[in-house]
Amino acid sequence: MEPVAPLYDPRLGAALVGATVVALGWLVAGYRERGRDRRRRQERSVDVQTALVAEIQHYVDILGNPAFDLDQAWNDMVAQMDADEHYVPLIPSERNDTMFQSILADVQILPEPVIRPVVRYYNQVFAIEAMIEDLRSDHFRATTTPQIQRIRMYTDYISMKKEALTLGKDACRVLGESLNGEQVSSPGAARSDP
Hints:
By secondary structure, the protein is mainly α. The chain has one domain. It is 70% helix and 0% strand. It contains 6 helices and no strands. The protein is rod-shaped, with a radius of gyration of 30 Å.
């Protein structure tokens, strides 16, 4: 009788067990690393959202301050401009986007439902900053510029601030819902009155 070769070689079994252990180790390590990345991304998102709420809420508080009514400020300024055709209002420069500028390249860190209202608000802030530059320009201040044109530009400026107030409230609401773990409602669905 011929000797029968064993169908099972213990070295092959040991190699298979070792390869399986290594492969499982890679899978577990990859899973853990993805979990750490998700947690870091979530923590960064919360930090960024918290900072954005603080920045936006600050401007909303200023614009919505009952001691400073935008409509009354507009009425007073237009009355003064109507009374003196050479009067040019002094418009202070503003900077209300420092935090947003710092995260602009990483805006995708924000949850998807939050991005749209936040970007809409900051687009309005950028438009206000551009309008302020126009209102501070030599052309606006020139004696050849008709006062009615200055009044129209100042009116647009106040209208833009009122819209920023509305958009800021909406952005703060959506950011608050996101930070509190609530289902974020669609932007603009429940817009607040200024």
